[in-house]
Amino acid sequence: MRRYRHTKILATLGPASSSREQIAALFDAGADVFRMNFSHGDHASHRAVYEAIRAVEEDTGRPIGVLADLQGPKLRLGTFAKGRIHLAAGDPFRLDLTDQPGNERRAPLPHAEIFEALVHGAELLLDDGRVRLRVESCGRGYADTRVVAGGWLSDRKGVNLPNVRLPISALTEKDREDLSFALDLGVDWVALSFVQRPEDLIEARELTQRRVGLMAKLEKPSAIEQLEAVVMQADAVMVARGDLGVEMQPEDVPVLQSQIVDICRGAGKPVVVATQMLDSMVSAPTPTRAEASDVATAVYQGADAVMLSAESAVGEYPVEAVAMMDRIIKRVQRDPKYRNVIDAYTPPPRAMEADAVTTGARQMAETLSAALIVTYSNSGSTAFRAARRRPATPLLALTPSVRTARRLSIVWGVEALVVDHFDSSDEMAAAASSRALSEGYARSGEAIVMTAGFPLGTSGTTNGLRIIRVP
Hints:
The protein is an alpha/beta fold. 38% of the residues lie in helices and 23% in strands. The chain has helices at 20-29, 43-60, 112-117, 173-185, 198-208, 221-225, 227-233, 241-247, 252-267, 289-301, 310-313, 318-333, 338-344, 353-368, 381-388, 402-407, 425-438, and strands at residues 8-13, 33-37, 65-69, 84-87, 92-96, 106-108, 123-126, 131-139, 142-149, 151-154, 159-160, 189-192, 213-218, 236-240, 271-274, 305-308, 372-376, 395-399, 414-418, 447-453, 462-469.
């Protein structure tokens, strides 16, 4: 099941793709990690999907990662007496805490924390930015605004506040219940929505106790203001371009995407580029050329993974969308300029043994034209550091932990296999050679560069580098 590509594919599951047969088809088409969206469904349906993924994993003999994406706070208007109203630019419009249905002059906004944070001049974006309001005066439980950009509004449309830091946690009570369920289920990654500050991740970390990888979804400008601190607190990052694009100018999002990918690469944290990548394939069998170019841009930038949302969850062509993304990635990697672009930014090694060893492994592999770089690790940390260097040589991670192998399924260029624990470096070398041959990575006589930590089985001790000739 070797993928022959570096960038991974994260596919969202939903009504169009939740059965064992559909999940198997998505995996065969190229999906490496599956996303369960906790904004929809209940625990029973999520459990059934998780069990179907694990059944496919057992059938294929290849570790598959599972991401639980928490909903986060959802800020929405209340209802309208007539179900729908129209606002024109220049109209006055009041938002308040009363529970009376709205009309053309006012609407309920059942979020006291918003009114606590509003100030004169603040902007509110309604219905994904289709309607824009500016605050002229505000107080406890109300805000008088002026319509800047008008349009239709209906019940329970979303509310965004682009330049306002809200005094709320990224974890609602629903999120806490979903997180506890996801941890018991055994997911490999948890995505945290509505991250505004590094402290949001610290709070989540206390709840997870490092049982899963914690992924920060970057969708709030306040998180961008503290980007490096947020990245350092996370285990991985998702560039949630949909929500980010609502609260920021569209022309800023591509630049931010590039900056975020570079910062994550420098920190050795996996980064996922998400939202509307092949959006037209929700209802069409092929993407637009602009969408194909969008996916290609993320691949050239060195993103660890690209994500499908509605395309695979509710679209009419979920398998075709995954297959198309797989084709685009492979085509980019065949471009003679691909390596030049990837290598244009190479983060310097840090003063740590793992970086010294993995940097040396890449240099050795290039000098010897080695067929493979093999890392052996219980925690997977060496594979994370090796991927940070974005080597041209394939990366194979051997680990005795199935959970580690699953978590590595989202990491750039890493193929992970579960193996027995080794008692000596000779056993490890023999196993590396055997798996390289059986998996089609190397042929007899070719070189393999292997990293490991000694004493064996001790996490955080990557200090050994060895060259092996496949017998």
